[in-house]
Amino acid sequence: MSDVKYWIWLTQQSGISNAAAHKYLRHFGSVKKLYFAAAEDYRLVPEAREAEVKRLMNKKLDAAEKIEADCRKLGIRIMSLYDADYPDRLRNIYDAPLILYVKGELPTIDDTPCIAIVGTRKAHQYGQRCAQRFGYEITRCGGVVVSGLAEGIDSAAIRAALDAGGPVVGVLGTGLDVVFPAWNTDLQNAVAKNGALISEYPPGTKGSKSSFPQRNRIISGISVGVVVIEAPEKSGSLITAARASEQGRDVYAVPGNIDDPNFVGSNMLIRDGAALAISGWDVISCYRWQFPERIQRRDSKKLAVLDAVKRIAEPRGEKNNRAETKKSVDKQNDKEYIDLKESAQLSDGELAIVRALSEGAKLTDELIELTGREASDVLADLTMLELEGYVRQNEESRFELCP
Fold first, then answer.
1. Is residue 6 within 8 Å of 35, Cβ to Cβ?
2. How far is CA 193 from CA 100, 188, 297, in A?
3. CB 308 within 8 A of CB 129
4. Which pLDDT score is estimated for 299?
5. Ordered domains of the chain (ranges, CATH)
6. Is 273 helix (H, G, I), strand (E, B) or coil?
7. Which are the contacts of 172, defined by CB distance < 8 A and separation ≥ 6?
8. Which of 190, 166, 271, 184 is nearest to 228 (CA)?
9. Beta strand pairing call for 225-229 and 77-80
10. If the chain, 403 residues long, is cut into consecutive pieces of 10 residues, what is the mean pLDDT of each piece?
11. What is the DSSP secondary structure assignment for residue 228, as one 8-state letter?
């Protein structure tokens, strides 16, 4: 008979922390023996507490059986700490989750160069574009991007990784049937279809103040390295970075403007020893020796974050220079632009941007207004077009078609 319901029973005992559960498991050697033990057996466990003994004497399995049935209906697989396919990389961290609920096809983590990309939910355009570049390039070079699927940096990185061909892994601080934020339904479905969603929480569990910081140890635990992009001084991303350091994982950070509050945390990480990263290849190349058959360098000249930093951060010049630049840009309409008939590989969104730019260079906000699409979608499509060499940014930070 399967031991799954006993694992679920153990995780559902309020008052038994994850660390306490590990303590009892080490003593009894199996979850089934732990379940059938008597009170006097529990008291023999070193540092056993009477409150814990009382909780463990609740042998009701109704809630566990319901969760198991719900998972079957939802197509969610339950993986316990002692299962053979539970990732060793995660099993060996302190306070490893007892159960993983999995939807989709989880890569063989121990044989995969998983890279976590994390950052603020309230990301600037620059941070989102960096996340997209890193997500795309790491994936193209053989890595698997891991993210918490939060708004901002997390979602931008995952979307770009999916555009690059995936697979990806999303780690949730809720049950796998709960979408947070609510508008992220399509992204969660795409991750489950092109990789895996994982959580230590059963279906129906809503997020809490503790669940999201808790899931951060899983994000770093299944990864070989963590990249922090745009993190304020009190960002949750710094918790992930701290857990990564505790777990012996590598920590990378993308530099930002020292006057920008959104980059205080990122810059502090670099100051305190995190590796400075200016491209996805900077990160994934560190693991070529470990995964020589997986990791290959791709053409990264269009992906270099340093170039993006220079373009976006450079002063735009005096008013007269801006007018002169715009005048010269406006005269470029006679150049040979992309033949849309030969661009069948472009998505509808990308084609809409190309058509808008065929009338002249545009700022991002202008493209959002002209195409009538969400800002995140326009940013994602702009990144893909730039990566493929269809568009570029000029000195005024306007996008224009490449001749």
1. yes
2. 18, 9, 26
3. yes
4. 55
5. 1-70 (1.10.150.20), 109-306 (3.40.50.450), 317-401 (1.10.10.10)
6. coil
7. 148, 149, 178, 180, 197, 198, 199, 201, 215
8. 271
9. unpaired
10. 89 93 96 96 95 96 96 96 96 95 96 96 91 95 95 94 93 93 88 96 91 94 97 92 95 94 95 94 94 80 39 37 36 41 64 87 86 81 78 80 78
11. E
C-alpha span between 192 and 260 (Å, rounded): 35
Q: Is residue 365 within 8 Å of 371, Cβ to Cβ?
A: no
DSSP three-state, residue 399: strand
> What value does the CA radius of gyration of the chain take, rounded to a whole number of Å?
24
Q: Which two tokens stand for residue 104?
A: 């989709």
Phi-psi sector, 232: left (phi>0), alpha (psi -120 to 50), beta: beta
Local structure of 388: helix, strand or coil: coil
Residue 66 neighbours by CB under 8 Å, 6+ apart = none
User: What one-letter code names the amino acid at 254?
Assistant: V
Helix (H, G, I), strand (E, B) or coil at 210: coil
Indicate the pTM of the whole model. Answer: 0.75
Backbone angles phi, psi at 167, to 5 degrees: -75, 170
Please state, in angstroms and rounded to a whole number, the distance separating the CA atoms of residues 164 and 260.
Answer: 30
Cα–Cα distance between 103 and 134 in angstroms, integer?
Answer: 25
CB-facing half-sphere around the CA of 19: CA atoms within 13 A = 5
* 333: DSSP letter: G
For 303, phi and psi rounded to 5 degrees?
-105, -5
Instruction: Say if residues 105 and 79 touch (Cβ distance below 8 Å).
Output: no
CA dihedral 24, 27, 29, 30 (to 10 degrees): -30
Work out the burial of residue 116: count CB atoms within 10 Å of its CB; fewer than 13 is exposed, 13-18 middle, 19 or more buried. buried
pLDDT of residue 345: 63
